[in-house]
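User: Reviewer 2 asked us to show a designed sequence for the structure in our supplementary figure. I'm pasting the structure tokens here. Could you produce the per-position amino acids so we can include them in the response letter?
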């Protein structure tokens, strides 16, 4: 997958792209990330990219010319252009899976008060990483890329590990334990030590569901609805 990140701060990404699984995915050629600097597209002699908002108000707005030119410099008919914005569709696991199927993603990172609305004609969709406002879109791009790349075959090595993570099947993953068996007087649950894989799976699912119900009743409701639909479909099979 090719990913273009268009921002005012290409150097921001040097560190996050250079660690752990993201670094390996890049080294293995599974993803290629290009860092575009919006400023170099500015026609202004001082490379200015922002201006005051029409109608007044605080702050500055990213001007259309450099941003539109930056997008057009990388965009083709196969590209999906995403503006990272607090006003977008909220990023979740389902959206990450969908994005992971693309050949070319372009992430536009805004700054200041946001971008001139006329830039939106070059954008396919707006995506938000949560209901809060960041000072710029760079951190959101890192979050989105990290979350979606886990669903690209080869990135995690074993794609099954993503299938066991939270939000699969509308529930959280189970609690995990590792050595030692007793830590500060607290034992690993005995079921995990008995070698009975059926019992272990049952316990894990139960614990995942208990926490989902307690912490995220909205997701737990989706789990229950899914169960009703699955059972109804089973009844239909003669
Ligand atoms: C200060 S914000 C602009 C917020 C805008 N004035 C508003 O209230 O909707 C500057 C930039 O940060 C990025 N940003 C802020 N919050 C975000 C979020 N929750 N998800 C994704 N990007 C975000 C966007 O690229 C945005 O253009």
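Assistant: Here is a per-position design you can include in the supplement:
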């Amino acid at each position: 997958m090719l990913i273009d990140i268009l921002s005012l701060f290409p150097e921001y990404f040097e560190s996050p792209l250079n660690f752990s699984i993201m670094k390996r995915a890049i080294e293995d050629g599974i993803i290629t990330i290009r860092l575009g600097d919006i400023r170099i597209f500015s026609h202004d002699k001082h490379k200015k990219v922002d201006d005051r908002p029409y109608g007044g108000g605080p702050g500055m707005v990213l001007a259309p010319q450099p941003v539109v030119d930056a997008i057009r410099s990388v965009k083709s008919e196969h590209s999906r252009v995403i503006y990272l914005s607090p006003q977008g569709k909220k990023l979740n696991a389902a959206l990450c899976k969908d994005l992971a199927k693309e050949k070319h993603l372009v992430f536009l990172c805004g700054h200041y008060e946001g971008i001139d609305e006329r830039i939106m004609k070059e954008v396919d969709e707006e995506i938000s990483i949560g209901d809060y406002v960041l000072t710029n879109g760079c951190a959101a791009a890192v979050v989105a890329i990290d979350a979606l790349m886990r669903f690209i075959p080869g990135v995690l090595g074993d794609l099954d590990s993503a299938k066991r993570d939270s939000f699969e099947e509308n529930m959280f993953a189970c609690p995990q334990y590792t050595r030692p068996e007793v830590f500060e007087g607290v034992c690993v649950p005995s079921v995990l030590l008995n070698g009975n894989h059926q019992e272990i799976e049952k316990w894990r699912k139960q614990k995942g569901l208990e926490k989902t119900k307690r912490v995220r009743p909205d997701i737990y409701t989706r789990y229950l609805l899914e169960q009703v639909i699955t059972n109804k479909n089973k009844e239909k099979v003669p």
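For the response letter, you might also mention the following. Residues 193 and 200 are 9 Å apart (CA to CA). Strands lie at 2-7, 32-37, 50-51, 61-62, 79-90, 104-109, 125-128, 182-183, 186-187.
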